[in-house]
């Protein structure tokens, strides 16, 4: 496995790994520290028991010093109601310091005495030896450990706590962490998908999910982007449908008037043909705009010489508009090669050129110029039509927008620039407008490329896209 195969540093894998490793280390530490604590609690005398037994030894020492055997006997008699255990006081030679001598069995038990700091195993009640606090060499207290001092009385309870309840609580905390890390954002994605199903395309994920740097954050941003795309596509389709129905009313009304009029057959046929042709162009342009906005299949990439493309387009434009070629000027060098789809770029540039010719005065000049900017070519086409208001520079790219107030169908339907912008965007380009010195200036930003090594001349295809560079005829 290579280092390049590992997930990125913001990957969800590392969060899960850190969480699980921290949980395992915490459980190991808990088992070790809590186990040692419970061992001390279950095998060693408590501080209270040690203090009580030490106090008994001090009392026995005081009784010996104050009354010798008689004092020890009186103290032992006083201990009988206090502790229901065997109690004795012995000297350094393991002989009784009281007036009552030890039995053989008691002497035998004296050889297995335990100290206060020794572990206490639960095998009966052990005998403990507690030296005199003042002078241990004088004697010691010997006592059978009272029942109440035996450690480990709550051993079963603490075992249940240690081996069941506490690990269960930590596991529950781990589940809560995993839930917040994984399930909460997934639930938000599910809610957004359910909102789409209910046609609520404006629902967005919270910033807490989309700002995450891991895979779930990336998925959330993709969901939001997809939601925005769906919303804009549906809004565009609805707007196009409304605009198309509005635009069709006028030619249909004219057809209705023509059918009810007393025109002769030739005039009526000419009127019907003109209106039908206009409606056909309107429907085709609307469908093409909708296709450009919704289609996401990659276009065929080819190498295009802008100068050669301009010559082909101006030849058609001169024939269509009656303009002389001298009015359609090109200042772009022959080394201007761009990368894109030939037919899509040609259609965009043709729509821009038609728009410039339509709004230019008689005798006006339309000029194409450009310069290289890094990996792009910046081209601009400027007319002499007087430009538009600054607040309308972006609105002219909206479908069915006609700032000159022309009648629908007269000189266009307001779809040309919308189609051009969408066509350029599909091949990595941009189109925006600004006012020039005498008219409107439309800027095109296209991906630059090198000239083809084996150029092949060809005509523009009416539809579709075929690979191959374009050379002047």
Strand content: 5-15%
N- and C-termini, Cα separation: 56 Å
**Overall strand count:** 10
Main sheet overview: 7 strands, mixed
Number of helices: 10
Give the oligomeric state. single chain
Query: Could you say which overall geometry the principal axes of the C-alpha atoms support?
Result: rod-shaped
- Radius of gyration equals 49 Å
According to CATH, the homologous superfamily of the largest domain is Histidine kinase-like ATPase, C-terminal domain
Given the helix and strand composition, which structural class is it? alpha+beta
CATH fold assignment of the largest domain:
Heat Shock Protein 90
Tell me the number of structural domains: 4
CATH class of the largest domain: Alpha Beta
**CATH architecture name of the largest domain:** 2-Layer Sandwich
Mean pLDDT: 79
Fraction of helical residues: 40-55%
What is the chain-wise order of helices and strands?
HHEHEEHHHHEHEEHEEHEE
Q: pLDDT under 50 segments (min length 5)?
A: 405-411, 453-459, 461-473
3D structure, described in words:
The chain has helices at 12-43, 47-79, 104-110, 155-197, 207-210, 215-260, 265-294, 306-321, 342-358, 416-426, and strands at 87-90, 127-131, 140-144, 302-305, 328-330, 337-340, 366-373, 376-382, 430-435, 440-448. The protein is of the alpha+beta class and 473 residues long. It has 4 domains: 8-42 and 155-188; 45-149, Beta-Lactamase, CATH 3.30.450; 210-293; 299-448, Heat Shock Protein 90 (2-Layer Sandwich), CATH 3.30.565.10. The chain is rod-shaped and about 150 Å long.
């Amino acid at each position: 496995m290579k280092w390049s195969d590992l997930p990125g540093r913001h990957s969800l894998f590392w969060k899960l790994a850190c969480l699980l490793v921290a949980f395992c280390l915490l459980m190991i530490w808990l088992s070790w520290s809590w186990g040692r604590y419970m061992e001390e609690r279950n095998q060693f005398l408590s501080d209270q028991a040690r203090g009580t037994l030490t106090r008994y030894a001090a009392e026995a020492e005081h009784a010996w010093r104050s009354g010798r055997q008689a004092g020890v006997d009186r103290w032992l008699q006083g201990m009988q109601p206090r502790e229901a255990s065997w109690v004795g006081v012995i000297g350094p030679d393991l002989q009784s310091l009281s007036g009552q001598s030890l039995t053989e069995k008691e002497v035998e038990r004296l050889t297995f005495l335990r100290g206060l700091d020794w572990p206490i195993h639960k095998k009966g009640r052990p005998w403990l030896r507690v030296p005199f606090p003042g002078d241990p060499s004088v004697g010691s207290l010997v006592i059978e450990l009272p029942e109440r001092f035996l450690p480990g009385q709550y051993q079963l309870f603490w075992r249940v706590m240690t081996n069941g309840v506490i690990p269960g609580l930590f596991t529950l905390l781990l589940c809560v962490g995993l839930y917040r890390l994984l399930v909460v954002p997934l639930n938000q994605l599910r809610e957004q998908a359910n909102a789409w199903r209910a046609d609520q395309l404006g629902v967005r994920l919270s910033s807490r999910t989309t700002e995450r740097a891991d895979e779930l954050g990336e998925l959330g941003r993709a969901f939001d982007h997809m939601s925005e795309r769906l919303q804009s596509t549906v809004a565009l389709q609805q707007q196009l449908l409304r605009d198309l129905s509005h635009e069709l009313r006028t030619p249909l009304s004219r057809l209705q008037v023509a059918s009810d009029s007393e025109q002769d057959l030739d005039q009526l046929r000419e009127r019907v043909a003109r209106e039908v042709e206009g409606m056909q162009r309107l429907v085709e342009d609307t469908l093409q705009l909708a296709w450009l906005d919704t289609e996401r299949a990659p276009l065929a990439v080819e190498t295009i010489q802008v100068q050669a493309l301009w010559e082909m387009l101006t030849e058609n434009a001169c024939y269509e508009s009656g303009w002389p070629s001298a009015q359609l000027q090109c200042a772009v060098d022959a080394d201007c090669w761009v990368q894109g789809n030939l037919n899509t770029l040609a259609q965009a540039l043709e729509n821009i050129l038609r728009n410039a010719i339509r709004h230019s005065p008689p005798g006006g000049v339309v000029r194409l110029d450009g310069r290289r900017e890094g990996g792009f070519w910046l081209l601009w086409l400027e007319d002499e039509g007087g430009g538009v208001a600054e607040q309308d520079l972006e609105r002219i790219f909206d479908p069915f927008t006609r700032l000159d107030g022309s009648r629908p169908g007269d000189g266009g339907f307001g779809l040309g620039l919308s189609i051009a912008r969408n066509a350029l965007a599909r091949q990595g380009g941009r189109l925006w407008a600004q006012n020039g010195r005498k008219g409107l200036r439309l800027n095109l930003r296209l991906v630059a490329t090198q000239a083809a090594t084996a150029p092949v001349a060809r005509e523009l295809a009416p539809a579709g896209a075929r690979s191959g560079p374009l050379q002047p005829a």
